[in-house]
Amino acid sequence: MTSIDLNADLGEGFGRWQLTDDERLLSVVTSANVACGFHAGDAVTMRRVCELAAERGVRIGAQVSYRDLAGFGRRAMEVPPAELTAEVAYQIGALEVFARAAGARVAYVKPHGALYNRVVHDEDQAGAVVDGVLLAGATLPVLGLPGSRLLELAGKAGLPVVAEAFADRAYSDEGTLVPRGRDGAVVTDPDAVVERSLRLARCGTVTSYAGTTVEVRARSLCLHGDTPGAVDLARRVRERLEASGVTVEAFA
User: Fold this and answer.
1) Mean pLDDT in order along the chain per 10 residues (252 residues)
2) What structural domains and CATH numbers belong to the chain?
3) What is the four-CA torsion angle of 193, 14, 5, 145, rounded to 10 degrees?
4) Which of 40, 41, 233, 244 falls between 20 and 30 A from 69, CA-CA?
5) Would you list the DSSP string of 87-116?
6) CA–CA dist 39, 113 (Å, integer)
7) What DSSP element (H or E) covers 4?
């Protein structure tokens, strides 16, 4: 039987400002990508999300980013590899404190935003992220785009790799994500997102921005938590998957 993990970006608030409905999304997803303070998130938010995730049996992942609170981690930045390595390890370590306090552990690592897109092709930045995971002291699985330099280097370093897909993002013919600044980069039609989710889970394919069929073999499906109606959409996706015989469970 086909199975897939559902992950969402959570804890993306700061102080009194809250972006994601963490509590409700944690009733739907199987893995939580928790912001670690560099693009969003603060100590109180990180602790709360870890406690909620642990209570619900949801896997906790460190969503690491460039240091860019003002730009929500979506601005291109030039960070020396050694600095990026240290900052990735720092973010993982910060989240691990709260995960352990909640009776859980950080179970994987996923880059966010500009860093996520950069490590698809940039070997130096991808290597720095891998080195940061290793510096944090654990052989944590790494989530990323299929065919990315990140997953290639992580695998060579002995880290488990988990390919990820996005039902609400447009793909190029090469299997990369269309930049957010382009019209149509984000799929906003809920029915389309639901059907794309099912196709990705069962067939491993998606229709590209240009209308061609692109292979995207993934073990985890990302549901963005910062879009309008995110909770209802996530619930619809899960219900559609399960009704079609797809098992929704955390990746092994």
Assistant:
1) 91 79 93 96 96 97 96 94 98 98 98 96 98 94 97 98 95 92 89 95 94 95 82 95 96 83
2) 3-248 (3.20.20.370)
3) 80
4) 233
5) HHHHHHHHHHHHHHHTT--EEEEEE-HHHH
6) 9
7) strand 3-10
